[in-house]
Design goal:
Layout (H helix, E strand, L loop, with lengths): L3 E2 L11 E8 L2 H10 L5 E4 L5 E3 L3 E9 L4 E6 L3 E7 L4 H10 L2 E2 L14 H4 L2 E2 L2 E2 L4 E8 L5 E4 L1 H4 L16 E12 L12 H12 L6 H15 L8 E4 L5 E3 H10 L5 E3 L6 E4 L1 H7 L6 E2 L2 E3 L6 E4 L18 H19 L8 E3 L1
Parallel strand pairs: 2-5, 3-5, 4-21
Antiparallel strand pairs: 1-2, 6-7, 7-13, 8-13, 9-10, 11-12, 11-13, 14-20, 15-17, 16-17, 18-19, 19-20
Helix pairs in contact: 5-6
């Protein structure tokens, strides 16, 4: 029996395959699988934009989540709540909400992946996190097929984390997410522009004649992301590969005395702690653009690791299909972690899910 090729189902384009692959377009498919109780593990996938396959031989069945649908489930004078199916495109949702005259998600524009994957990572960007907009998450229990709704507290949202990344969260399959959106009104709109580069870009658009609207903020976010981050369709990647680490105030002070340009921010939820910019640490360690075989640290953004295996290095390589494996990428990640630990005494944590 032939295996299911996963290479085109992960944005790093890592060479991998599963025992079987099923596109989930109806909830009944999940119930049927649960009733049959397959011995093979179930690997739920969206667009594979935050996933690293450590092995080329993935055990189990890959469930490609393709449930679609968006509907309104609640409203108030100033807000609307939408229930969005797990297989919907995240960026597509953001743009649909803007076209409907709603706001709240504009800072999260152009983040790749599906809506169902968004709570797992508690995606965030430019001062906004998804958890601020989640009303509840609809899940199916893998063992029984029972459907239930989890509150934001039950989801245990944190910085790039949630219940769904913990072992106990592995018992759930996300079916939909309820998000609260604000009705746009010029006098009530309070955009989140705390991120300096975003504020200056929006100001430049306003100087060019654009009004301060959610769409303008979204346009600014997309412009910055396109400048900073490589398009995974052209240069395979999963975006930020490491979380920004948190250190004690004492550790921060020691580093600041050694490195005057250290990029760090106080952590409001943790007194006497600072969050460091992982990209700055990697770049200052001299690893920006560093290449190891078929993978490399991106030349413009040190927080991004890229699969450059398909870039021909000589005339003889043109037309030859190169292969990049998860072990190649993880070897580079381990090298970066070792260098950063040695130079700064800081442990870097891998952000995407590593499938072993």
């Amino acid at each position: 029996m032939s295996r299911f090729d996963l290479t085109c189902y992960n944005t790093l384009r890592l060479s991998a395959s599963a025992d079987q692959g099923i596109k989930i377009t109806q909830r009944e498919q999940l119930l049927t699988l649960i009733e049959k109780r397959p011995q093979a593990p179930l690997l739920v996938m969206g667009e594979g934009s935050n996933m690293v396959f450590a092995s080329e031989q993935v055990s189990g069945i890959a469930l490609l989540m393709r449930l679609t649908g968006v509907r309104q489930v609640a409203q108030t004078r100033h807000t609307v709540t939408w229930r969005v199916a797990a297989g919907e495109s995240w960026h597509g949702l953001v743009q649909t909400s803007l076209c409907a005259g709603l706001c709240g998600l504009e800072n999260l524009s152009l983040i790749p992946g599906t809506v169902g994957a968004a709570p797992v990572q508690n995606i965030g960007a430019y001062g906004v996190e998804l958890s601020e907009r989640v009303v509840q998450v609809e899940v199916m229990e893998r063992e029984s097929g029972a459907v239930r709704f989890l509150t934001p507290d039950a989801c245990q949202f944190g910085y790039r984390s949630s219940l769904f990344k913990a072992p106990e969260g592995a018992s759930y399959i996300i079916l939909s997410v309820d998000v609260r959106l604000d009705r746009y009104h010029p006098t009530r709109y309070r955009p989140q522009l705390g991120y300096g580069q975003l504020a200056s870009r929006v100001a430049a658009f306003q100087a060019g004649g654009l009004a301060l609207t959610p769409s303008t903020v979204s346009r600014a976010v997309m412009a910055i992301r396109r400048e900073k981050l490589p398009d995974p369709n052209r240069l395979p990647n999963v975006g930020s590969f490491f979380k920004n680490p948190t250190v004690s105030r004492a550790h921060y002070e020691r580093l600041r005395r050694r490195y005057s340009t250290l990029v760090a921010y106080p952590v409001p939820q943790q007194a006497e702690h600072y969050k460091l910019a992982a990209g700055w640490l990697i770049e200052q360690a001299g690893l920006k653009g560093y290449r190891m075989g078929p993978v490399a640290v991106h030349k413009q953004q040190a927080l991004v690791l890229v699969n450059c295996a398909q870039e021909p290095t000589s005339g003889a390589a043109v037309g030859r299909k190169a292969v990049c494996r998860g072990r190649d990428l993880l070897a580079l990640a381990e090298h970066i972690q070792a260098v950063v630990m040695d130079q700064y005494g800081v442990a870097l944590e891998v952000e995407p899910k590593v499938v072993v």
